[in-house]
Amino acid sequence: MVADTSILVLAFALFLCLILSRWYNERKNNINQINRIPGVKTYPLVGTTYMFFGKSRNETFDVLLKEAIRFPYISRLWIGPFPQVCIRKAEYVEKVIGSTKNLEKSFGYKFIRYWLGEGLLISGGNKWQKHRKIITPTFHFSILETFFDVFSDKSKILIERLDEHCGTGEPFDIYSYITKAAMDIICEAAMGVSVRAQEKGTNTYVDAVYQVSQLIMNRVVRPWLHPNFIYKHTKAGKEFHECLQTLHGYSADVIQLRKMTRKEKLPLNGNGEVKKNRLAFLDLLLEANENENLLTDKEIREEVDTFMFEGHDTTTAGITWTIFLLGLHPEIQDKVYNELDSIFHGSDRKVTLSDMSEMKYLERVIKEAMRLYPPVPIIGRRLSENIQLDEYCIPEGCMIKIDLYNLHRDPRFFADPETFDPDRFLPDSMHSRHPFAYLPFSAGPRNCIGQKFAAYEQKAVVSTILRHFTVRAVDKRHDVKMINELVLRPIGGINVTLHRR
Ligand code: HEM
């Protein structure tokens, strides 16, 4: 009996040794593969995250810029024991996101999950597929068309707010004004709820978004803050928890408000039935919950959190960086104004869907602004299989950081990359470019679901501002410090002066 047990224990120990040695060899092999990729010196426990220690928010972004200069196209980082391969070359990016593989998000998104849950941005596998299928129709062309009144009405309020600064010669930060307009737009268009952010002073939701994004980015590069049982006892962890309560409380209120007013507000057709093609995004989610039980209450909250954040913070950045560049380039601003004048002939009428295709030059301007300042500067994936990027074999399971900011500065595709030149997006120039050289909305199956909405909103808001004001930027490009806290934002905002047309 004793002999039998000993044999069993011995067999189990041998089996364990075998598993461990296989795991060890595989890990060693993977580490060797990763370490063949150029990168800064690695130290035990912290990996390469020491680069970020003691750095201020904008210095953190500078670290990434310096890394890209030192190691163009590809480099490796170690976030503690976890390797991360950073790519900035169109051909490499195509290999990672150009197929239906590698659909899972990377490790860093884990910390966003506490805020956005298993919403579309974060989730993976069957859940992501199912939700993407349910949500895609809400961004159908016919629905987008119905949002133009919202774009116009909220832009009109924005103009009234901006008018207070007009002609004073006093610079002011336009970023906060655009943020509130973008909040009003996403809440009204997608959620069917009027939050009147522009009519109120501070917005607790917006403040909490900034704070939570900063806390998440800080946590990602500090491996000792990764375990929850440590983080929740820290000052940052407590602040994070408070922010989550504000953010989740706000989205719960939005859902509640829409539930209450939904029945009265839905437009009816001649027979008194609800017109399907006028449903807001949130209505569709609520329908999926009520009628077919396709989504739970929690899933709806997570999608509302996701779309409120993705739907306002990104477009705010896109619009404000565009205004900044136009404010620095009066000659380009004049060209945009002339185009707008040829469409609107000086009238104050609302912007419509058919105007969009007329704003060809403005479209190029916005595209070029998103090239230089991509609102989402970095995205991440987890590899579902080994891939070969030139001489480097990157093992399955590795995290890939796709650096859109530097991808957009590849001189092979964008000569003199720092120059602001909207004509890079003339059809001829675009056709001859690598399809993965410019990806502000990412690409492949997990591309931005709201990109058409965003493109229209940006054109609608920027055109309305320029129809009313001449904009001058106060600071030069090198004076404006950037932070990458999920979205690429200017520290201290964008200071401008306005003059009435
Ligand atoms: C200029 C504005 C915008 C930019 C530059 C932008 C950019 C992006 C990028 C780069 C991604 C991929 C993220 C990743 O892989 O981690 C993404 C995904 C996403 N975006 Fe946008 N976005 C913008 C506006 C919007 C708007 C207005 C909405 C909603 C109304 C939206 C909703 C989403 C969602 C839900 C995803 C996740 C899609 C999925 O994984 O299936 N975005 N966006």
Automatic annotation (TrEMBL):
Binding site for heme: C448
Gene it is expressed from: CYP4C1_4
Alphabetical list of CDD domains matching this protein: CYP4
Keywords: Heme, Iron, Metal-binding, Monooxygenase, Oxidoreductase
The protein, known as: Cytochrome P450 4C1
Keyword Oxidoreductase recorded: yes
Family in the record: Belongs to the cytochrome P450 family.
Pfam family, one: p450
Cofactor(s) listed: heme
GO function term, MF aspect, one: heme binding
Lineage: Eukaryota, Metazoa, Ecdysozoa, Arthropoda, Hexapoda
Keyword Cell inner membrane set for record: no
